[in-house]
Structure formats: C-alpha cells, structure tokens
Amino acid sequence: MNLELSVTEAMSTPVATVTLDTTAYDVANILKDKGIGCLIVVNDAKKPVGIVTERDLALGVVSRNLKSKEVLVKELVSPKLISIPPKSTLMDAARKMDAENVKRLPIIDGEELLGIVTVSDITKVSPELFNIMVETTEIHSSDYDYAKKEIIEGICELCGSQDSINYINGKYICKNCREDSEEDEDEY
C-alpha cells in the first residue's frame, strides 16, 4: 500500500492563485480555462490566505443572483485556510480531509505554497487509501444515503476505471457500468 507516501509525491503543481480583489467573474473563467475546481487565494505578499471553489461561486454568487463582475473573492473566501505541511503522509491528508470535510488541501511550508493535494490526487497514487476514506466516511455518517450521492472520483469495482462513482448494491461503480447494469435490467 502507498499509505506512507508523502503528500508532496501526490500533489499538483503549480497551484493557480488569485488575490482577494479578483472578481468572481475572473475566478469562474480561470477555473474553466484551467479545468480545475479551486484557486488558492493569496494576499499582496503572496501568502496563502484562503481557497475559493466552484461551490463558493455557486453559493456566493449564482444562488444569490449577484453579478459576478461585482463580487470580489474577499466576499467568497472562507476565513480559515485548512492546509497540510509537506512532511505529511497521504494517510494524514485523508484523515484531515475527513475531519475537516474538505476535498482539497494546500501544502504549505511556513508561508510558502508548494502545491495542492486533492481526493483525486490521492486516488491516482493510492486507490486503496480512497477505499479507506470512503469506509471512514460511511462509519461517521451512518445516516448518509450513498445510493444518491455521487463521489467525486474513485475506482470502479466492476471495470477498474478511475471515474466518478456511486455506491449501488454494495459496490462502487462508474456511470458506464451503472448504465450497462440498467440496460441489462431493461432487457428482462
């Protein structure tokens, strides 16, 4: 198992950043152009001070029917940046993600942003750790309906592909396998 790998071995670099005065409109375009789900927010001294995600845009701009060119990142960013030091293991990162209910952790050494590690990064490097993360979440959330919740990314137990997966009939399966099984049911 790759549970003791360092977060620096799985992190993504370079990390896209924005300032507190960047507009939500610009954030949305950067996310779209780069094909990513978050940006690290830095202050004038380039010190990481927060994170802004697609969800922040949806809740802070779209759901409030605001004009994205008039909303600044400082109005969207959460006041606490949850990060992890570079000497941490992937298991440490998985535990922290679970404890803090986040999907991304900036890797910060002192005040320097080194990279970012996401659930997807962990899944690519250590699929077995992803399974542990899912099991831990199930234990902590016994009332959670996994049949209706799509997991961001994981390993399909039927075909082995890395994709968005759902927990259905006791297995984590991707959309293609789910559709195939639904087609098989329709044939009867």
TrEMBL record:
It holds the Pfam family CBS. The keyword Iron applies. Zn(2+) binds at C156, C159, C174, C177. Residues 151-184 form the ACP-type MB domain. It comes from the Archaea. Keywords: CBS domain, Iron, Metal-binding, Repeat, Zinc. One of its GO terms (molecular function) is metal ion binding. Fe cation binds at C156, C159, C174, C177. Residues 11-68, 77-136 form the CBS domain. SUPFAM superfamilies: CBS-domain pair. This is Signal-transduction protein with CBS domains. It comes from Methanococcus vannielii (strain ATCC 35089 / DSM 1224 / JCM 13029 / OCM 148 / SB).
